[in-house]
Amino acid sequence: MLKITVGFLLGIIIGLIFGPAAGVLSPLGDLFLRLLKMIVVPLILFTLIVSVNNSNPKELGRIGGKIFPYYLLSTAVAVFLGIAIAKLINPGKGLKMPENATLDVPEAPSMIDVLLQIVPSNIFESMANGDILSIVFVALITGFAISFMRNSAEAQMKDWGNMLLKFTEAGSEVTFRILNGILQYAPIGVLGITANSIGNQGMETLSSLAKYVGASYLGVAIQMFIIFPIILMLFRVSVVKFFTKTREAIMTAFVTCSSLGTLPVTIKSALNAGISHRVANFTLPIGATVNMNGSAIHFGVGVVLAAEIVGYDLTIGAIVAIILTGTLASVGTAGVPGAGLIGMSIVFTQAGLPIEIVGLTAGVNVITDMVFTMCNVTGDLVGAAIVDKTEKDVEEEDLPLQNAQESNLQYDSKSI
Ligand code: ASP
């Protein structure tokens, strides 16, 4: 962790001194991102199949029933927070409509399409494309199939089921070992990414949109350091321990600007924080794809910016509609760098605001994307932490002694 921070600080210094020339270091960062992405698909597949076999369908249903309301509620709050902060700071006052900044707005897919696409028409294609929700789906049904085989009355089936589970457990161990290796390289990767983005960020664009950037940072700070701690405290999770144990993931999200790229580190940090494998492996891949608290703040701040530039009065009705579309758009936002710009253009189109303004903010997106992604990943971890806590409370009522021993073990064996 200390090494990553040193890499980050060195990256800033190199970026500031050499400016755009620091771009020569960007392959170092690209290599880090590629390594992380390389491990995402096998990691999700192996760990989820093992998780399903270590828990029963009832438990998984219970976890899902807790995590989804949390995702939707915390995202809606984040859109509102973005709007409220921006209303105080007025980022659009004094700015003009950009003349030639254009952007293609993709059609917003319908809810039915989004749900249908979770079921892949070709398993291998979904893995090749990194469609995380489809991969989660395939991993879950494979996990259940193996679990049924293991519990079958037929000796042959039982044998195969146990063999497949053993194979998957070994595969999961392999991916974690590779991940540990990748993390050794993290400080250099982080240096490359930071030097490149700091070196290439024009200072002029930054000063003209300083209020917009300021509102975004303030919104994220409130979500991270007030709202998330309150949620954690409500569920009696130690805030200090949470942030110390998960800071590696938070920092990686900040520099990579990608929730998906950060996912392997997020899972590792969650285990490090004592969150059970079952909850971490099941909720975090889904969270990295659908839960975007930071992106939601992005949409809230962006809408106020655009409304102020064009002189559009945001009524209560309009704000409620924006919270709804903002929440849905953030579910649809991919966990990759810059994806929020597409989500924002969907929100703008539905609110009747000119999407050229999205282009205006694109110039500072590298700087804002960092904190939005950091907030996205922290939100996923907060969700996992509180669900884990409620799960442990349930278990404690049932099996006080066994559970205490188990959670201690997990905590020790998975420390980074
Ligand atoms: N970069 C963000 C993420 O990966 C998504 C966004 O652009 O809002 O979490």
UniProtKB/TrEMBL annotation:
Primary location group: membrane
Identify the InterPro entries for this entry: Na-dicarboxylate_symporter, Na-dicarboxylate_symporter_CS, Na:dicarbo_symporter_sf
Annotated spans, Disordered:
396-416
Q: Which PROSITE patterns match?
A: NA_DICARBOXYL_SYMP_1
A GO BP entry is: carboxylic acid transport
List, alphabetically, the Pfam families matched. SDF (PF00375)
List the Gene3D superfamilies hit by this protein, alphabetically.
Sodium:dicarboxylate symporter
Question: Has keyword Endoplasmic reticulum?
Answer: no
Alphabetized, the UniProt keywords read: Cell membrane, Membrane, Symport, Transmembrane, Transmembrane helix, Transport
Q: Where are the transmembrane segments?
A: 7-25, 31-50, 70-89, 132-153, 174-195, 215-235
According to its record, what are the GO cellular component terms? plasma membrane
MF terms (GO), sorted A to Z: symporter activity
Superkingdom of source? Bacteria
**What is the name attached to this protein's record?**
Dicarboxylate/amino acid:cation symporter
Say which species the protein is native to.
Siminovitchia acidinfaciens
